[in-house]
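User: Fold this, then the next.

Assistant: Folding the first:
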Amino acid sequence: MFSTVNRVFLTLLLAFLIGFSSHSVALSPALFKVEKAGVTSYLFGTVHVGDKSMDGLPKKITQAIEQTDEVIVEVNIEALNAFEIQKRSIPFMTLPQGRTLKDEISAEHFEALKQYFAAKQINIALFENLAPWAVMVTMMQIEYQNLGYLEDYGIDKQVIAHAKKHNKPIGELETLEQQLEMLSSLGVKSDLMISTTLAQLKDVEQYFLDLVNAWKKGDMDTLNKYYQLSFDDSDYGKFSEEVMLTQRNNNWVEQLTPRLTKESLFIAVGALHLPEKHGLITQLKAQGFNVTRL
């Protein structure tokens, strides 16, 4: 079983960024209808990377996109070129001048990272100016790419592509800088994240199998279970939930509430933003919206 910090980091630090899927499970994720004042919108939980089995949105999703006035995503990365993303990300991912990765973590964990990258024929010197959280993200990217999981099959990317195809405006709930600031703030326990991540990387695919299969089947009970597993009552568990989900969900609901009574929106955000008491489903219901599973 993953430690709390590792579960939070791998599952929720990236807002359900990393998805591993089974070819045997048909793609039928949950879609919710949001209604108030005679206006109908849709809420869809996504994963941001996937494999070939996730290529192609289900018909109910494409139809919902086509019926709405605008598609809303967390951040529309597709609107930015690689150079612009890099330029805006570097200030958050790099350490202050005069400091290196070796200064930010214990000697033991630096050596463990050195061995990890050496086994993959990568020189750790490439990362000496990166913040520890950025190194962790890089490690996870290496792992899922080696297993054949790509952003090209990510559901967000497919939603945006379908919206563009049908000339739908694409709105954002936050900026790239806001997401990077959030990720940066989770680096307060870098040594613990490194140790648990290194220990569990070999089990990543198995851990995510049930989680993403649950997403593919629209199994909200299992998604709720993984949410609860990912956040316990430890200081770090509470902190991560507050930073990763509660604050962001609150901000999103504040933005969305006035619009949802005037415009038909298709809202696509990371799947674990939907469940539990701070999730979008519960918060929208509390604002008087009728939220029903389709």
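Now the next one, as you asked:
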Amino acid sequence: AIMQAQRDLLVEDVVNLMERHFDGAELGGVVGEIDKLFSDRFEALASSLDIGRSSRGPGGPGGNGTGGHGGGRRPRHLH
């Protein structure tokens, strides 16, 4: 729900800004790319949560060679 609200606000801001220079009908591709970015971020978040669960399995956190970044902690999102 939070990511959807963030996406909606970003789309509104970007469309308002770009409509100064382009017709709104031309911005469908821009909105599509914003949707793709948020979809990719959501999938990465869901994947990191799944990895976090599996790394806490038998043997304790960090005992399964998950890259040595703090055991069951999720890696930081780098831009």
